[in-house]
Amino acid sequence: MPMNAAELYTTLKKSQESKGYFFNPDQTKVMALLTALLENKERYGYLGCPCRLLWGDREWDRDIICPCVYREPDVKEFGSCYCGLYVSREWLAGSIPSVNVPERRSADKILGPDLS
To answer: Of 8, 30, 58, 88, which has the fewest CB atoms closer than 10 Å, so is most exposed?
Structure first.
């Protein structure tokens, strides 16, 4: 039986908080993102970031499999990852402002693999 968003929440919460990554306190947003991650897993076979265009090629999309490779620098610099799923302790405490996180993924990765 496939995992649901609440189960994924519980699993990730345990494993990620010990690393200093916390879920955004906006539960509606978090559950929507987790549901979309599970939909991507069903569709593509991996937990691809729901905030970015996936190409269905695991190797091409490897950098945006959640938690994506951009999460650590995003949270370190802005207190939040690009989609806002993960935030830092400082962000939660309100000691750093909530800002829109710029895209770090390169244009060639966004445009997709050359299919010609």
So the answer is: 58
